[in-house]
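Training component of the fellowship. As part of building independent skills, the fellow (R.M.) carried out the full modelling exercise for a liganded target. The chosen ligand was (R)-mevalonate. The inputs are recorded below so that the supervisory panel can assess the work.
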Amino acid sequence: MTKPVNGFSKLNKTEKINWLSENYLDNSAAAVSVLKQYWNDDNDLQKLHDEFIENTVSNFYLPLGLAPNFLINGKYHVLPMAIEESSVVAAASKAAKFWNIRGGFKATVINNKKIGQVHFLFQGDFSKLDKLVTKIEPKLRESVKPITRNMEKRGGGILNINLIDKTEELENYYQLFVNFDTRDSMGANFINSCLEKFAEVLEAEAKSNPVFTEEEKNLEVIMSILSNYVPECTVRAEVSCPVNELSEDSTISGEEFAKKFIQAVRIAEIEPYRAVTHNKGVMNGIDAVVLATGNDFRAVEAGVHAYASRNGKYSSLTHATIEDEIFKFWMEVPLALGTVGGLTSLHPLVKLALDILQRPSAKELMEITAVAGLAQNFAALRSLITTGIQQGHMKMHLMNILNQNQATEEEKEEMVEFFTHHTITHSSVIEQLEKMRS
Ligand code: MEV
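Fellow's submitted model of the complex:
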């Protein structure tokens, strides 16, 4: 058993690695050299990455891929995608190509409100509390002026502040429920700073309110924090085309394809086990763009899945219909994204990803990201209802298996050729590789 370490964050990087090596890696020089292998030669760049978090010992790479030919609202885009799963970028590119000759994707931001809450306890007369909150609203707004000034110059700021009575669900529990417009920033720090100020003012005003009883004066703030559930920060992405244009070859007619596709979506609408996997496919596209553009994928994931359960049962994010011989496939999702602030001006690859997207506004990035999710779901369902998912998946995964087995470039070439005509499984690849090597 190793002993707990004190003052770990005060050690320098080499000392941290030495401690790790001595205590957890059997003093393995090979393990340490793996960590060091990922250090960047450019010291400034490395320092920048070291300082993103505490106790950095190395960098963790993910591939950055490009999915070209995305026609969105009449304009072509190349999507930068950061993801490790072999088939995702290939699937996105395929879906983009499929739809760009069928009118492309349409996307619109529906609304763009962010939410924050001051959660507090109050014991006493609700009408007196209500009066106090109404009376101090100008004071609350004034108290955050130094924080909101710049945001207001950009057209954003605090939209409204409401008092919510939650005492039916939890004794003495109330909220200040605040809506924000954070323009092109995701706005987490802005929102949290405003909320903490509101909390301070609220407690002080309660304490000095002459009409409050002693008990009422003891209004107690529990916490102040933004919500990652943003059902009023949503975007719609859709594609449509005549049913008979859905077919690409003679294996399946457009009508058969549309019917089977819609059935697959219906299953995800009513069956939570399937809906989770279905939506995971949507998130393959969304997360990859969210990560590449330096946004908070945990926040997006949390918000999207909560939205998928908003009617009390977890369900599909996407929907499909045929009306008047027109196939329509769409999705509405909440996406709180930013194109300024945070990592966007700090991480060189994030900056580049935003350049690749032609410096979008937050709203444009919401549209592009939603399209990536819809495209990914389209590609997954298309495979699932026709060839099955494994054909494309294993084709992409072949390279991983070959790399795991240290295949040379010549071996890789031969194996790729061989497996264009044979079924790929982990064991069939190993078997063929061994055969070739012997
Ligand atoms: C795999 O990452 C995603 C899929 O499972 C999505 C789906 O089943 O729709 C293929």
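The panel noted the following from the submitted structure. DSSP finds 16 helices and ten strands in the chain. Residues 8-50 form one domain.
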